[in-house]
Amino acid sequence: MQKHWLARPRTIRRLWILGLIILGFTVLGEYLVERHPLFSLDRLPGFNAIFGFLACVGLILVAKLIALALMRADTYYGDGPDE
After folding, report:
1. Residue pair 27/46 in contact by the 8 Å Cβ criterion
2. Tens of pLDDT along 22-78?
3. What does the alpha-carbon distance between residue 47 and residue 42 come to, in Å, rounded to a whole number?
4. Which among 6, 16, 25, 50 has most CB atoms closer than 10 A?
5. What helix, strand, coil percent values describe the chain, rounded to 5?
């Protein structure tokens, strides 16, 4: 039985490369439009990409903390189909 196409190492590597290429184009695209920064950090090249990445990491960490608070034991609904 073959692995799912998203689980293959070759596909994972290609997706990483594609993601980095897209990230590079978005950072380079900042130089093609006139920007109107609202605060000092917004003037940095690549700020939006960095901010987006950090926001994603923050959301994942918050979700993990919520999961710890809401998690139940594996046997919460019983041990098996007999019960």
Report:
1. yes
2. 989 988 988 898 889 999 998 988 898 889 999 999 999 999 999 999 988 888 787
3. 6
4. 50
5. 60, 0, 40
Contact 21, 47 (CB under 8 A): no
E strands of the chain, at which residues? none
In angstroms, the CA 79 to CA 71 distance is 17
Count CB atoms within 10 A of the CB of residue 27.
Answer: 15
Measured CA to CA, the distance from residue 44 to residue 60 in angstroms comes to 25
**Rounded alpha-carbon distances, angstroms, from residue 37 to 23, 43, 51:** 20, 6, 14
* Residue whose entry in the numeric block shows the structure tokens 């897209």: 22
- Using the structure block, give the residue that is written with the tokens 């990230």: 23
